[in-house]
Amino acid sequence: MIGLMLKISGGWLASILMGLPLFVSMGLAALVFLWLGGMPVTVLPQKMAGSVNSFPIIAAPLFILMGNILGAARLTDRIVEFASAVIGWVRGGYAHASVLTSMIFAGMVGSAVADAAGSGAIEIRAMKKAGYKPETAAAITAAAATIGPIIPPSLPMVIYGVTADVSIGKLFIAGVIPGILMGLSLMLMVAYFARKQGMARKPFGGFRNIGRTFLNGFFALMTPVVILGGMFSGLVTPTEAAAVACLYALFLGFVVYRTLEVKQLGPILIETAETTGLVLVLVMAASALGWCMSISRMPQTLSPLIVATISSPIAFLLMANVLMLIVGCFMEALAAMLILIPILVPAAVAYGIDPAQFGVIMVLNLILGTIHPPIGVVLFVVTRIANISFETMSRAILPWLIPLLVVLLAISLWPPLTLWLPQVLSASK
């Protein structure tokens, strides 16, 4: 069975390199395995349907819907205005404000692409107007967008939690401190470049201006509080929090700010359905292939082999980080996650590594691939916004990977950065 699975996996990887859609190649690989293994192929649709027959996974389309509603309601302008008032007056202030905006926005949409597309245009335009090079402005925006899937809510963490059978609430809480560290590390990098390049300051607008912008965007800024407060207090599950967040977003758009119209609901729902379809079809195909791997005993064989080959948890984490960083450069994050979870998570557990800590490490590794060529989905987004070439963008982003990699190394080597907050909150309940 293992030999058969290895042959099919080789054919599957070859089909990906030839340009076959990932979900199609995974589904075909599972089908061929069942057929050659003499098993009924009717098992395939049963396993695919069963993979999405899950209450936690409902959170995925709900968070996608919430992000689309918030984008259509144009709440980004208020958040950017507040972030600029708070920190825009220091040297390199527009870049600092871009990072702070992404940290706030991360608590709303949970997606790097949505973060870059939602606030990127305003941030890049402001930085270019202040004299930043277009590629520098785009690189800062792209790097800050990676905070989106780490600070909860997070679509990748929902998928990881469902696939690896890990508490989504614990994963969300585990991502808070790493997300804040990512923002602070990028701000330190901004401060270094601002001093080195002699970036000008703009006058401090005063605390009254901060108060005004805060009140102007108060209800929008409270979105992360509504989501995280409900989950951390135990009032709602992550799935229920996603539903509450959708209602809150509709309330902001229709009642508070009145920037949303009924005629926009149709396109919002269609866009949500399209994105959800892409996510769920990947989950279904990967689940079917994962089940085939499981009955072939491929993960059960590879995990002990990894444990026997690598002597310590730290060495395993370093190896896993390198592997995931490489995979993330060539494959979309959710797809890569669904492929790697059955192999790496059992090995991590065997080393005594908490699955929640490993989940944050995996998500951060694979999200970094979105700002690194050749795939670099976020790079393509900000390249179009900044109107620069992809080659220029690829060179400009390299220095901004350094602080993010430092955070990745820190959360890999020191578990309390991810596990302390979940332990404190669970102990207080």
Task: Count the beta strands.
Answer: 0
Measured as a percent range, the helix fraction is over 70%
Assign an overall shape: globular
Radius of gyration from the alpha-carbon trace, in angstroms: 22 Å
State the end-to-end distance. 47 Å
Would you mind describing this structure in some detail?
The protein is an all-alpha fold and 429 residues long. The chain has one domain (42-428). The protein is 78% helix and 0% strand. It contains 23 helices and no strands. α3 (43-51) packs across α16.
Q: What is the element layout, followed by pairings?
A:
Layout: H1 2-17, H2 22-36, H3 43-51, H4 59-72, H5 76-87, H6 93-109, H7 112-129, H8 134-145, H9 155-164, H10 168-174, H11 176-196, H12 207-216, H13 218-221, H14 223-232, H15 238-256, H16 265-295, H17 298-309, H18 313-330, H19 333-350, H20 355-368, H21 377-386, H22 390-413, H23 416-428
Helix pairs in contact: 1-2, 2-16, 3-16, 4-15, 4-16, 5-6, 5-12, 6-7, 6-8, 6-11, 6-14, 7-8, 7-21, 8-21, 8-22, 9-19, 9-20, 10-23, 11-22, 14-15, 16-19, 17-19, 18-19, 18-20, 19-20, 20-22
